[in-house]
Amino acid sequence: MKKVVIKECESIHFPNVFTLDLTQTDVKDCIGCWSCWWKTPGRCTYKDLNEFYHHYITADKAIFFSKVTKGFVSGNLKTLFDRMIPLYLPYTTYKTGESMHVPRYEKYPDIEFYYEGKFETPDRRKIFIDYINRVFYQFYSKNITIKPIEEFILDGGDNE
Q: I want to staple 35 with a disulfide (CB 3.0 to 4.6 A). Which of 45, 80, 147, 157 is the partner?
């Protein structure tokens, strides 16, 4: 099974797996130029994420390790989500009863999303989990798992 790891937690290490380390990478903001759709389809005008795009789209599973920042994903991770738009077409479909971008590729990776941090209330935790589910539903991931990072650690990490 091919995997890609996106992490904000320094203590997580996956040998022999492409890792986008957000503790070392400051993702540039999307400038809304539409080049990724019209001029260079599937590729951002910035070239900083080209290797990530390739590994993400060819992976069977993407494993995220996110820090909860003020009850939400960090700005850097949110920017990464924004910058993943080249992986989809500029057209919209209403097949699911709602507006979604048309997928550019035949398959997208399953998601394991682990978060590190606390929430002020159970409702705020639910909002966070609903948001993550929504992002990856819109990103056409079929299987989405969201858990506190402690569950990853207690399960012994990645056993595959």
A: 45
